[in-house]
Amino acid sequence: MKIKSLLLGSAAAMMAVSTAQAADIIIPEPEVVEYVRVCDAAGTGFFYIPGTETCLRIHGYVRYDIGFGELNAVTSADGEETWSKRARASFRVSTWSDTEYGPLRTYV
Questions:
Q1: Stretch 79-107: mean pLDDT, rounded?
Q2: CA distance 93 to 10
Q3: How many structural domains compose the chain?
Q4: pTM of the model
């Protein structure tokens, strides 16, 4: 009998206690800030310079070659080296702007 009253009392207590539920808060999404605008008119890789209608592209490459083993052309004075290395780099800047006479492009 005590177990029955204990179970009924526990069930009644569980029913009486209401659970607190958090309300769905609507948080506005932040505005998207465009730091870089893509310039599709000029081609791939161009972006607008902020405050102007001129498009800019910065590109280039870096290449590093290293070779091991017996080389045909020995580069050191004593003839002991059996490896070589070589590095190349290129840095290019291009601009594009639309004028009343047509597109104006510069290459550096």
A1: 90
A2: 77
A3: 1
A4: 0.53
- List, for residues 2-42, the tens digit of each pLDDT value: 766 656 666 666 665 555 566 678 888 888 777 888 999 99
Per DSSP, helices labelled H in the chain are 2-16
State which residues form the domain around 40.
Answer: 35-108
Residue 12 lies in a domain: no
| Burial class of residue 55 (count of CB atoms within 10 Å of its CB; 0-12, 13-18, 19+) | buried
Q: d(Cα 48, Cα 35) in Å, to the nearest integer?
A: 10
Phi, psi of 106 (to 5 degrees): -130, 150
Instruction: Give 52's Cβ-side CA count (13 Å radius).
Output: 11
